[in-house]
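Throughout this chapter, every protein is written as a compact record of paired, labelled lines. An example of such a record is reproduced below:
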Amino acid sequence: MIELKVDVDPAEVGFDAERLRRIDKHFDGYLERNRLPGYLAVVTRNGKVAHLAANGQRDIEAGLPVETDTIWRIYSMTKPVTSVAAMMLVEAGLIDLKDPISRWLPEFSEPRVFAGGSSVKQATVPATEPIRLWHLLTHTAGLTYGFHRTHPVDAAYRDAGFDFGTAPGLDLAGVSEAIARLPLLFQPGSEWNYSVATDILGRLIEVVSGQPLDVFFAERIFTPLGMHETGFQSATGDLDRLAALYVPHPVTKEPFRHDEMGALGRVAPTCFSGGGGLVSTAGDFHRFAQMLVRGGELDGVRLLGPRTLRLMATNHLPGGVDLETCGRTGFSEAPYDGFGFGLGFSVLDDPVKAKTLASAGEFAWGGAASTAFWVDPDEDITVLFFTQLLPSSTYPIRVELRNLVYQALID
């Protein structure tokens, strides 16, 4: 177990301690209004934890408090882990960013693109471009999520069992085959749409590496980094530390327990979802974020080269535009204005357009239960936020947290 604690005077790393305490006051306000079950925030600079803010309950009904070793469902914060795994295979020469994924996943050999009709009777045309590895990493493959509910293809996903999460009973190979039978939303590489692309990426990693995704993660990422409490299921003896999952009550807006979806992390999954299946602790994910801000290396363990990390944290959207320009409207873990998308992360290109205090070059992502993290290479800052409230669009937590962190930075 990684003991996470404040290990530097904030002033030594350029933060005003009193201003950092505004984080606590702000999110304590959420608790006082009964809008969050509990929270944990971690602010790090120069590799040192400058601030920990924690309060509330990890399990309201059991009266169990949030603690630094609480285990959280990180949902789509799994995606950066899967993206790092894919880039490790690129560095090993086993796959290239321009490679068609059909080389390893033949079910995607003849993708077709929606051209009209309904969810049950679609008119399609052949894709003019194969789906390539970089399309999966950037969510420009033409795939979608059923829960978007903005297009007939979204409905087709739901009809196939892909609403929130993967279709029941399918392993990762079965998921890939089922998704390949559905039409694409647009021609690969032409637009951005948040999607199951990272689940397909996980299957690609399995085929290319010859290992199940959970084994690859454990052997190549988690064990080397000392992330011993991150995986697709919490150890039986640690289930009391796994936070309960909540949604806003439709009338009172108070946190309402959702044990059906809260089964994630408690039971062994049929599918190792590279797009949203992991549970982790603040201590574990802190080490992952530190590896990223250090350019792919931590404590003598190097997962990626610094040039690879720089490429991942660069905007890859067509024409270098932002998400507002080429992104489909719908659910997202990031704002659109001023943000591009790299190989597995959102990328802040224009703080003025985004109207944020954060630094250009920040890369980030979040999870459906309102968790979030970002890495600021320019200031050598990482920030983590954990809670368990679905969906992440309920409150503007990420926008607020950015401002709260950077207003405290005085050097």
